[in-house]
Structure formats: C-alpha cells, structure tokens
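[agent] plan:
  1. take the single chain provided in the ticket
  2. run structure prediction with default settings
  3. attach structure tokens to the ticket
  4. add a short note for the reviewer (M.T.)
[agent] executing step 1
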Amino acid sequence: MKVILLQNVARLGNKDDVVEVSEGYARNFLIKNSLAKELSPGALKDLSTKKEAKKAKKEKELQKEIDFLLKYKKQPLLLKLKANEKGHLFEKLDAKKLSKLLSDLSSANFSEKSIVLDTPIKELGSYELSVKIDNKSFKILLDVKSE
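[agent] step 2 finished; step 3 output follows
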C-alpha cells in the first residue's frame, strides 16, 4: 500500500515522501498514529501543490537575498558598532552575528553558513564580505564605524 508521510518516520522516510508499506503497517500504525495518509489522486494533487508552493516560496526568499546583496555591491553597507578610542570593537563580528545583522537589515533570511569570513572583524574600517547563495558568490562592501 502506498502512503504519504505526514511526519518524518525513522527508517522509512521524511515528511511528504510517498512510500510503499504493508497494508497492516499502514492501517494499524502509520494512519492510526497520524504519521501518514493513504495515497489517493486528491492527496497526490495536494502534495504536488504543496511542493510547488514551497519551491516558489524558496525562490522568492532567494531573490530577496540576491536583491539585497546586489544593492550593496558598489555602495558600502554602513554598520555602527561600539568601539574604543583605538578603533577596536567591543564585540567581534563573526559569521553568526553578521548573518543576524544582514537578516535584520533586509527582509531576507541569511544563514551563517552563507557568510564566508576568514577571521572575525575586530576593528573599525572597510571590509569586503563574501556571501554564498545558491552556489553563487556575491561580494558586498561593509563599512564598520563607531557609534
């Protein structure tokens, strides 16, 4: 019997996968515990619609990220942070903090894995930051100033 998984099931598959299982296992365990539903033409159509919507949402999010990065390709992104009189930042900027800052400044959601940073930024100044999105690398200018 073919079923659509409603949740991740260990050793069977992930959510929204179509899997073949025995009828007893499907009826007595998967369907009974709301882990799966029986495959029908309507359910298959709902699944494909759901996957298309998810794909469209992901593409829209990706386009938001790319638009934001292209905006700061030539014009530097100004960040005002606390620093001492020698120009050393009180708090270093690493990939995690930069991803949060970029996400807050834009309507996109940047992951820390997408930020390519050799060493954390510890001083005021201008930097070129590399961001990888969808196997493409974008360079943006970052201008760190004192508050």
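[agent] step 4 note for reviewer: The first strand starts at residue 2 and ends at 5.
[agent] ticket updated
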